[in-house]
């Protein structure tokens, strides 16, 4: 397979099904951000140690799911028959969020992203997911996407937040709580 096609030389790209669209279209922004997210998930998975094999396996499964999700975003003729994304992933994410949010102690305050390197990477994944969600919502104004896709992307950022907290907890890394107005620069 040729790595370069020269199709993009004029600022356009091909979609699933063969149509062509500008590289700055809402659709390309949306699936491009999903691709970026998938790359950061891969990086985050490499930073987990052997005690986190359960999370590594989940992340690998999630990466496959996101390939399907991105393919669907790139398909202007998306319908129930052509959709690759499995809507059951919404329930899967909800069960994982429930599992992970019950592991560390409950908090009633905002935390600063960080702690361990792994937690910080999951916070990066969370914010990329939020950006992808905004772009998918924008795309949904001009095309109708399946509601399960919108639910999934909304839950996905919560999943990464839960993962960020749980890896800090498992590693014994304290979370830093946000303190409004109490920080003085020296």
Automatic annotation (TrEMBL):
A Pfam family it matches: Cob_adeno_trans
GO molecular function: ATP binding; corrinoid adenosyltransferase activity
Lineage top rank: taxon: Bacteria
Pathway: Cofactor biosynthesis; adenosylcobalamin biosynthesis; adenosylcobalamin from cob(II)yrinate a,c-diamide: step 2/7
InterPro entries referenced in this protein's UniProt entry, alphabetically: CblAdoTrfase-like (IPR016030), CblAdoTrfase-like_sf (IPR036451), PduO-typ (IPR029499)
Enzyme category, top tier: transferase
UniProt-listed NCBIfam families: PduO_Nterm (TIGR00636)
Name of the featured protein: Corrinoid adenosyltransferase
Organism: Secundilactobacillus similis DSM 23365 = JCM 2765
